[in-house]
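Q: How would the C-alpha coordinates look for this protein?
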Amino acid sequence: MPSSLRVRPFRRDDRDQVTELVNAHVAAVVPGLSVSVNTVLSQLQRRPQEFILDPWVAERVTLVAEQRQHVVAAAHLLRYRADAATGADYRDAGVIEWFVFRPPASFWPDSESAADLLMAACLAQLTRWGVSRRYADGQLPAAGICGVPDQWEHIRAAYRRTGFTPAGPAEALLIAAVADLGRPAGAAVPGANVQRTLGECGTRFSARLGDDVIGYVEVDTSLDRPERYARNGGLADLAGLHVAEPYQGSGLEEQLLAHAARWLRMAGVDRVLTYATADDIEETGQLVRHGFQELSRIERGWVHRAVR
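A: Here is the predicted structure in C-alpha coordinate form.
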Protein backbone atom coordinates (compact mmCIF):
# COMPACT_ATOMS: atom_id res chain seq x y z
CA MET A 1 0.00 0.00 0.00
CA PRO A 2 1.62 3.29 -1.07
CA SER A 3 2.43 5.41 1.97
CA SER A 4 1.07 8.56 0.27
CA LEU A 5 -2.49 7.16 0.25
CA ARG A 6 -4.87 8.09 3.03
CA VAL A 7 -8.63 8.03 3.62
CA ARG A 8 -10.36 10.94 5.31
CA PRO A 9 -13.82 12.56 5.54
CA PHE A 10 -15.01 14.65 2.61
CA ARG A 11 -14.29 18.38 2.84
CA ARG A 12 -16.12 21.07 0.94
CA ASP A 13 -12.97 21.96 -0.99
CA ASP A 14 -13.02 18.41 -2.42
CA ARG A 15 -16.22 19.22 -4.31
CA ASP A 16 -14.69 19.85 -7.75
CA GLN A 17 -12.51 16.74 -7.71
CA VAL A 18 -15.33 14.51 -6.47
CA THR A 19 -17.70 15.94 -9.10
CA GLU A 20 -15.07 15.21 -11.76
CA LEU A 21 -14.93 11.58 -10.58
CA VAL A 22 -18.72 11.34 -10.56
CA ASN A 23 -19.02 12.79 -14.07
CA ALA A 24 -16.38 10.44 -15.44
CA HIS A 25 -18.54 7.51 -14.31
CA VAL A 26 -21.78 9.11 -15.55
CA ALA A 27 -20.36 9.86 -19.00
CA ALA A 28 -19.29 6.24 -19.46
CA VAL A 29 -22.95 5.17 -19.21
CA VAL A 30 -25.12 7.98 -20.66
CA PRO A 31 -23.61 9.92 -23.58
CA GLY A 32 -23.18 13.64 -23.04
CA LEU A 33 -24.58 13.65 -19.49
CA SER A 34 -22.88 15.43 -16.60
CA VAL A 35 -24.00 16.94 -13.31
CA SER A 36 -23.07 20.15 -11.54
CA VAL A 37 -21.04 20.55 -8.36
CA ASN A 38 -24.24 21.76 -6.69
CA THR A 39 -26.01 18.51 -7.58
CA VAL A 40 -23.29 16.41 -5.96
CA LEU A 41 -23.15 18.57 -2.82
CA SER A 42 -26.94 18.48 -2.53
CA GLN A 43 -27.04 14.68 -2.67
CA LEU A 44 -24.50 14.44 0.14
CA GLN A 45 -27.01 16.26 2.37
CA ARG A 46 -30.34 14.80 1.25
CA ARG A 47 -32.09 13.18 -1.70
CA PRO A 48 -35.26 15.22 -2.36
CA GLN A 49 -36.37 12.88 -5.17
CA GLU A 50 -36.37 9.93 -2.71
CA PHE A 51 -39.37 11.18 -0.77
CA ILE A 52 -40.05 7.72 0.67
CA LEU A 53 -36.55 6.47 1.45
CA ASP A 54 -34.75 9.65 2.44
CA PRO A 55 -36.76 10.39 5.62
CA TRP A 56 -35.64 6.98 6.91
CA VAL A 57 -31.94 7.98 6.79
CA ALA A 58 -30.42 8.60 10.21
CA GLU A 59 -26.83 9.42 9.24
CA ARG A 60 -24.71 10.18 6.18
CA VAL A 61 -20.94 9.96 5.75
CA THR A 62 -18.81 10.78 2.70
CA LEU A 63 -15.22 9.53 2.54
CA VAL A 64 -12.43 10.18 0.06
CA ALA A 65 -9.10 8.53 -0.66
CA GLU A 66 -6.37 11.07 -1.27
CA GLN A 67 -2.96 10.70 -2.86
CA ARG A 68 -0.56 13.61 -3.26
CA GLN A 69 -3.39 16.02 -2.36
CA HIS A 70 -5.57 14.62 -5.14
CA VAL A 71 -8.87 12.80 -4.57
CA VAL A 72 -8.55 9.45 -6.35
CA ALA A 73 -11.62 7.68 -4.91
CA ALA A 74 -14.81 8.67 -3.08
CA ALA A 75 -17.77 6.95 -1.42
CA HIS A 76 -21.05 8.06 0.12
CA LEU A 77 -22.64 5.99 2.91
CA LEU A 78 -26.07 6.00 4.54
CA ARG A 79 -27.34 4.54 7.81
CA TYR A 80 -31.07 3.84 7.95
CA ARG A 81 -33.02 4.06 11.19
CA ALA A 82 -33.92 0.92 13.11
CA ASP A 83 -37.42 2.02 14.17
CA ALA A 84 -40.73 0.55 13.07
CA ALA A 85 -41.46 3.54 10.81
CA THR A 86 -38.60 2.52 8.51
CA GLY A 87 -39.41 0.04 5.75
CA ALA A 88 -38.49 -3.54 6.60
CA ASP A 89 -35.96 -3.90 3.76
CA TYR A 90 -34.03 -0.82 4.94
CA ARG A 91 -34.52 -1.04 8.70
CA ASP A 92 -31.14 -0.91 10.49
CA ALA A 93 -29.27 -1.12 7.18
CA GLY A 94 -26.01 0.49 6.17
CA VAL A 95 -25.56 1.31 2.49
CA ILE A 96 -22.61 2.32 0.35
CA GLU A 97 -24.82 4.54 -1.78
CA TRP A 98 -22.07 5.03 -4.34
CA PHE A 99 -18.37 4.28 -4.72
CA VAL A 100 -16.19 5.77 -7.47
CA PHE A 101 -12.56 5.62 -8.50
CA ARG A 102 -10.66 5.67 -11.77
CA PRO A 103 -9.35 2.37 -13.16
CA PRO A 104 -5.57 1.93 -12.91
CA ALA A 105 -3.67 4.04 -15.44
CA SER A 106 -0.11 5.19 -15.99
CA PHE A 107 -0.72 8.45 -14.13
CA TRP A 108 -2.67 6.77 -11.27
CA PRO A 109 -1.14 3.29 -10.99
CA ASP A 110 -2.21 3.01 -7.35
CA SER A 111 -5.94 3.65 -7.91
CA GLU A 112 -6.88 0.05 -7.13
CA SER A 113 -4.95 0.24 -3.85
CA ALA A 114 -6.79 3.48 -3.11
CA ALA A 115 -10.12 1.77 -3.83
CA ASP A 116 -9.31 -1.12 -1.49
CA LEU A 117 -8.20 1.28 1.26
CA LEU A 118 -11.39 3.29 0.86
CA MET A 119 -13.53 0.14 0.83
CA ALA A 120 -11.90 -1.02 4.06
CA ALA A 121 -12.79 2.36 5.60
CA CYS A 122 -16.39 2.00 4.36
CA LEU A 123 -16.75 -1.44 5.94
CA ALA A 124 -15.20 -0.11 9.16
CA GLN A 125 -17.80 2.68 9.19
CA LEU A 126 -20.61 0.16 8.73
CA THR A 127 -19.16 -1.85 11.64
CA ARG A 128 -19.05 1.25 13.86
CA TRP A 129 -22.68 1.92 13.02
CA GLY A 130 -23.53 -1.62 14.14
CA VAL A 131 -26.01 -2.15 11.30
CA SER A 132 -27.64 -5.53 10.89
CA ARG A 133 -27.36 -5.61 7.09
CA ARG A 134 -24.97 -4.11 4.54
CA TYR A 135 -25.86 -3.06 1.02
CA ALA A 136 -24.01 -1.38 -1.85
CA ASP A 137 -25.24 0.48 -4.89
CA GLY A 138 -24.24 2.97 -7.57
CA GLN A 139 -26.86 5.68 -7.07
CA LEU A 140 -25.02 8.67 -8.46
CA PRO A 141 -27.14 11.83 -8.71
CA ALA A 142 -27.70 11.59 -12.47
CA ALA A 143 -30.50 10.37 -14.70
CA GLY A 144 -30.30 6.67 -15.53
CA ILE A 145 -27.50 5.92 -13.06
CA CYS A 146 -28.34 3.29 -10.45
CA GLY A 147 -26.83 -0.02 -9.45
CA VAL A 148 -23.55 -1.01 -11.12
CA PRO A 149 -23.58 -0.65 -14.93
CA ASP A 150 -21.47 -3.04 -16.94
CA GLN A 151 -19.24 -0.13 -17.99
CA TRP A 152 -17.98 0.04 -14.39
CA GLU A 153 -15.97 -3.18 -14.37
CA HIS A 154 -13.56 -1.70 -11.80
CA ILE A 155 -16.41 -0.91 -9.37
CA ARG A 156 -17.91 -4.37 -9.79
CA ALA A 157 -14.51 -5.94 -9.09
CA ALA A 158 -13.98 -3.78 -5.98
CA TYR A 159 -17.39 -4.77 -4.60
CA ARG A 160 -16.81 -8.45 -5.27
CA ARG A 161 -13.30 -8.40 -3.74
CA THR A 162 -14.80 -7.23 -0.46
CA GLY A 163 -17.72 -9.64 -0.28
CA PHE A 164 -20.60 -7.86 -2.04
CA THR A 165 -22.70 -9.79 -4.56
CA PRO A 166 -25.74 -8.62 -6.57
CA ALA A 167 -29.02 -9.98 -5.26
CA GLY A 168 -31.52 -7.94 -7.25
CA PRO A 169 -32.72 -8.37 -10.84
CA ALA A 170 -30.52 -7.05 -13.63
CA GLU A 171 -31.94 -4.20 -15.70
CA ALA A 172 -31.25 -2.94 -19.20
CA LEU A 173 -30.89 0.83 -19.66
CA LEU A 174 -32.00 1.97 -23.11
CA ILE A 175 -31.93 5.29 -24.97
CA ALA A 176 -33.66 6.62 -28.06
CA ALA A 177 -33.43 9.79 -30.10
CA VAL A 178 -36.77 11.60 -30.05
CA ALA A 179 -36.50 11.88 -33.83
CA ASP A 180 -36.64 8.07 -34.07
CA LEU A 181 -39.85 7.69 -32.05
CA GLY A 182 -43.36 7.33 -33.37
CA ARG A 183 -42.80 6.24 -36.93
CA PRO A 184 -46.13 4.55 -37.74
CA ALA A 185 -45.89 0.89 -38.69
CA GLY A 186 -49.60 0.34 -39.17
CA ALA A 187 -53.03 1.95 -39.08
CA ALA A 188 -54.17 3.58 -35.88
CA VAL A 189 -57.33 2.34 -34.19
CA PRO A 190 -60.35 3.95 -35.93
CA GLY A 191 -62.27 6.25 -33.59
CA ALA A 192 -59.51 6.44 -30.97
CA ASN A 193 -58.63 9.90 -29.65
CA VAL A 194 -55.40 10.81 -27.86
CA GLN A 195 -55.63 13.10 -24.84
CA ARG A 196 -52.81 14.71 -22.83
CA THR A 197 -53.13 14.68 -19.05
CA LEU A 198 -50.98 14.67 -15.94
CA GLY A 199 -49.85 11.11 -15.25
CA GLU A 200 -48.30 9.38 -12.24
CA CYS A 201 -44.70 10.32 -13.14
CA GLY A 202 -45.00 12.90 -15.91
CA THR A 203 -47.12 13.87 -18.91
CA ARG A 204 -49.43 11.10 -20.11
CA PHE A 205 -50.89 10.63 -23.59
CA SER A 206 -53.90 8.31 -23.40
CA ALA A 207 -55.70 6.70 -26.32
CA ARG A 208 -59.45 6.63 -25.62
CA LEU A 209 -62.05 4.64 -27.49
CA GLY A 210 -65.34 5.87 -26.15
CA ASP A 211 -65.04 5.70 -22.37
CA ASP A 212 -62.20 3.17 -22.42
CA VAL A 213 -58.47 3.90 -22.19
CA ILE A 214 -56.94 1.39 -24.60
CA GLY A 215 -53.34 2.55 -24.35
CA TYR A 216 -51.03 5.21 -23.00
CA VAL A 217 -47.49 6.51 -23.02
CA GLU A 218 -46.01 8.64 -20.24
CA VAL A 219 -42.89 10.81 -20.39
CA ASP A 220 -41.10 12.65 -17.60
CA THR A 221 -39.24 15.80 -18.66
CA SER A 222 -38.34 16.81 -15.11
CA LEU A 223 -35.62 14.30 -14.28
CA ASP A 224 -34.02 17.04 -12.19
CA ARG A 225 -34.03 20.81 -11.95
CA PRO A 226 -32.17 22.28 -14.97
CA GLU A 227 -29.84 24.40 -12.86
CA ARG A 228 -28.45 21.26 -11.21
CA TYR A 229 -27.15 19.76 -14.45
CA ALA A 230 -23.93 20.89 -16.07
CA ARG A 231 -25.14 19.40 -19.36
CA ASN A 232 -27.96 17.03 -20.20
CA GLY A 233 -28.68 17.77 -23.85
CA GLY A 234 -32.45 17.60 -23.33
CA LEU A 235 -33.11 14.28 -21.63
CA ALA A 236 -36.42 12.71 -20.62
CA ASP A 237 -37.63 9.41 -19.18
CA LEU A 238 -40.13 7.06 -20.78
CA ALA A 239 -42.08 6.29 -17.62
CA GLY A 240 -44.64 3.96 -19.17
CA LEU A 241 -45.92 2.51 -22.45
CA HIS A 242 -48.93 0.22 -22.55
CA VAL A 243 -51.52 -0.87 -25.10
CA ALA A 244 -54.42 -3.17 -24.26
CA GLU A 245 -53.98 -6.64 -25.75
CA PRO A 246 -56.75 -6.45 -28.39
CA TYR A 247 -55.06 -3.37 -29.91
CA GLN A 248 -51.45 -4.52 -29.87
CA GLY A 249 -49.94 -4.53 -33.34
CA SER A 250 -52.50 -2.05 -34.61
CA GLY A 251 -50.05 0.86 -34.80
CA LEU A 252 -51.44 2.42 -31.63
CA GLU A 253 -48.08 2.31 -29.85
CA GLU A 254 -46.47 4.19 -32.73
CA GLN A 255 -49.31 6.74 -32.71
CA LEU A 256 -48.89 7.34 -28.97
CA LEU A 257 -45.12 7.66 -29.29
CA ALA A 258 -45.56 10.13 -32.15
CA HIS A 259 -47.72 12.32 -29.90
CA ALA A 260 -45.12 12.06 -27.12
CA ALA A 261 -42.29 12.85 -29.55
CA ARG A 262 -43.97 16.03 -30.78
CA TRP A 263 -44.43 17.13 -27.18
CA LEU A 264 -40.81 16.34 -26.30
CA ARG A 265 -39.50 18.30 -29.29
CA MET A 266 -41.47 21.33 -28.16
CA ALA A 267 -39.89 20.87 -24.70
CA GLY A 268 -36.39 20.90 -26.21
CA VAL A 269 -35.83 17.21 -25.47
CA ASP A 270 -33.82 15.19 -27.96
CA ARG A 271 -33.23 11.89 -26.10
CA VAL A 272 -35.33 9.53 -23.97
CA LEU A 273 -34.16 6.97 -21.41
CA THR A 274 -36.04 3.93 -20.17
CA TYR A 275 -35.46 0.64 -18.36
CA ALA A 276 -36.39 -2.94 -19.13
CA THR A 277 -35.92 -6.20 -17.27
CA ALA A 278 -32.60 -7.47 -18.62
CA ASP A 279 -33.77 -11.03 -19.29
CA ASP A 280 -37.15 -10.02 -20.76
CA ILE A 281 -36.38 -10.44 -24.46
CA GLU A 282 -39.93 -9.51 -25.51
CA GLU A 283 -39.93 -6.22 -23.57
CA THR A 284 -36.46 -5.24 -24.77
CA GLY A 285 -37.28 -6.23 -28.35
CA GLN A 286 -40.41 -4.09 -28.30
CA LEU A 287 -38.41 -1.04 -27.21
CA VAL A 288 -35.75 -1.69 -29.86
CA ARG A 289 -38.45 -1.85 -32.53
CA HIS A 290 -39.59 1.59 -31.40
CA GLY A 291 -36.15 3.14 -31.84
CA PHE A 292 -34.39 2.41 -28.55
CA GLN A 293 -30.91 0.96 -28.24
CA GLU A 294 -29.31 -0.61 -25.21
CA LEU A 295 -26.77 1.48 -23.30
CA SER A 296 -25.96 -0.78 -20.39
CA ARG A 297 -26.83 -3.78 -18.24
CA ILE A 298 -27.11 -2.82 -14.59
CA GLU A 299 -26.76 -5.06 -11.54
CA ARG A 300 -28.69 -3.83 -8.52
CA GLY A 301 -29.25 -4.87 -4.92
CA TRP A 302 -25.67 -5.65 -3.86
CA VAL A 303 -25.54 -7.39 -0.46
CA HIS A 304 -22.52 -8.06 1.76
CA ARG A 305 -21.96 -11.74 2.45
CA ALA A 306 -20.92 -11.14 6.08
CA VAL A 307 -24.27 -9.61 7.09
CA ARG A 308 -27.59 -10.70 5.58
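The chain has a mean pLDDT of 90.

The domain at 174-297 is CATH 3.40.630.30 (Aminopeptidase).

Upvote if useful.
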